[in-house]
């Protein structure tokens, strides 16, 4: 009997050791999981899913596979712009969950001003009513076969690409919390240009944004037709003059393949590309809280970034850079266009 009990105790100890070892989840060598996500270990009070104490855009699941009180831990990341809600057991927008991960209002921001909805309806009604009535009554008896086939194919393709409703599918949702409504910007409406103020400076000045499918011009956002929106400063500014093109020969913009699926474009105006796939694979959206652990916002920081360079043959190449030479807690910020220090005290716990 004593030998039988010793064998049972030995098996329990081995199972406990294996549970601790396997329960560590992905190691820090896996690039998908940053150091601060896996270390120090998160607490598993019981089986279930919980928001990450150091970043609300991550959550972890605790599983006691052996039913002996030792948990396997698995980490997951929410979609950009969302945080994990413990009660709903899913990722939601910040206004739908309570602090520390959300605002707790439970309702979306108020509707936009009355001016934007008048923009999209004005374009479509003007063209279609005028074209069909004039053509069919005069032409049908003499040219039924030739006129209908030539007119429909040429008219629709030329008009839709110029209209605002075709933009939203390609936009990169980047809601700006400086407004009281969900206004999103994309690269098309916020091009990277070199402005003279009076010294040359590269900026992403926005000429408008989208609320759902409605395009809102910067004149309506800023209340002044001569102003544009500065995403970095989060304020409306006067539109500065663009710098003249340099006289020296510069290499043309060229797509640089990173692998079979992803590419980015190098140019004199954008030497650090910020494509969506780069941000999703190399960057993390950190949740920030104040001294009372109340959610105050988020910051997108990247452990690596691509740096475009001109070769002596006047073509483009690139290197993969990081901020490790600045210090252990330094990461790259597209908003600041350089390396910034991540203050651990600002992270939500």
Automatic annotation (TrEMBL):
UniProt signal peptide: 1-19
Domain of life: Eukaryota
Disordered: region residues: 103-180
Entries under SMART domains matching the protein: ChtBD2
GO molecular function, one term: chitin binding
Biased composition (Pro residues): 107-172
InterPro entries the UniProt entry points to: Chitin-bd_dom, Chitin-bd_dom_sf
Domain Chitin-binding type-2: 41-103
One Pfam family in the UniProt entry: CBM_14
Keywords: Signal
GO-annotated cellular components: extracellular region
Name of protein: Chitin-binding type-2 domain-containing protein
Species this protein is from: Scylla paramamosain
